[in-house]
Amino acid sequence: MDVNKTKSEKPKLINMKIGIVCYPTFGGSGVVATELGKALAKEGHQVHFITYRQPTRLDFFSANLFYHEVDIKSYPLFEHAPYELALASKMVNVAKYEQLDLLHVHYAIPHASAAYMAKQILKEEGIYIPVVTTLHGTDITLVGKDPSYEPVVTFSINQSDGVTAVSEDLKRATFELFDIKTEIEVIPNFIDLDRFKKQKKEHFKLAICPNGEKLLVHTSNFRKVKRVEDVIKVFFEIRKTLPVKLLLVGDGPERDKMERLCRELGTCDDTRFLGKLEAVEEVLSVADLFLMPSEKESFGLAALEAMACEVPVLSSNAGGIPELNIDGVTGYACEIGNIEEMTKRALEILDDANLPRFKANALARAKELDVSNILPQYEEFYRKTIEKSQANILNLG
Ligand code: GMT
């Protein structure tokens, strides 16, 4: 790692070598990790992704980006192959041979405990590598607090050299649900506005809304926690007073049930299930309103993607969503499951007298969370964590 001074004499790290561990599939934490790695690489850092599959959004060549696949060996004795051990072993090898400065793991389970194991193994060889853990949400609120994982999650968070959370609410929940003895810094999720800036897709809008209907969009992994049924119920209510169409992007366990609900309510003609889409920005760029009625949501990256396309958000007030979707400004954040309130607020946003204001506010909020504003926060956090860990090593020596 080289440390240079900028004009303001603030140390700026260049040529840092960072290992990023994440889930590579569709899902917020993997997207954030991949986009972070790409942005760091653009800044000149060397980034090594360690995952069990090529991250979805890592499909191009860059001299600063590397991908290391975790080899998960199966054996007849294993009912479940020990992924965490294979991951820790891969972390050890990559950290050692690529001479990483820091390991940044996204989603505590099992990445933080695997990183702890890797750190201990490396220490035996005289290699000290600091670990940063970013908490994303369900690793704390849904899965992590389950007694079958809780002791290991608590331990590995406390053993991390730096911990970040994607919202103030997630930080609060982590202290409430676990016995945490370390500091947690909030670094919000971000968006690459260049990718998400509004595209001219009027022909697409015309094909979906031939009679000038307003277009509502929801994207998720169709898990129970997303309350997709509320999307369909709110749409059903709005449709009684306003010509509207609904696009549902994504797939998951609740999809069949949601298709049945549309049939029961008779909304199928105005609703389309599009399945998983890589270029979600194409759909978002023609939307008038984004719906996120989730039961739990530490941040709501999908809503930020919509806002970056100038789309206001009608959401629940779960978890960290109100930190992103400012109630009455970028949309509304209503009580979870309150269909009547959500319908009223959706109609207010969609009113032609209000819509331009909500759209402009949504985009302005997204601009605050552009990657160019958030990346320096991660770089600074890495710098602090590396310095702290080097000071600890000197003290121990
Ligand atoms: O919510 C999901 O289904 C996926 C999950 C993940 O880890 O991929 O999302 C969590 O992390 C995202 C990125 O930080 C956040 O935007 C989501 O709000 C959060 N999900 C929940 O808290 C339920």
From TrEMBL:
InterPro entries reported for this sequence: Glyco_trans_1, Glyco_trans_4-like_N, Glycosyltransferase_grp1, Thiol_BshA
Annotated ranges, domain Glycosyl transferase family: 209-356
Sequence ranges assigned to domain Glycosyltransferase subfamily 4-like N-terminal in this UniProt record: 26-195
GO molecular function: glycosyltransferase activity
GO BP, sorted A to Z: bacillithiol biosynthetic process
Top-level division of the source organism's lineage: Bacteria
Gene3D superfamilies in UniProt: Glycogen Phosphorylase B
Protein name per UniProt: N-acetyl-alpha-D-glucosaminyl L-malate synthase BshA
Species for this entry: Mongoliibacter ruber
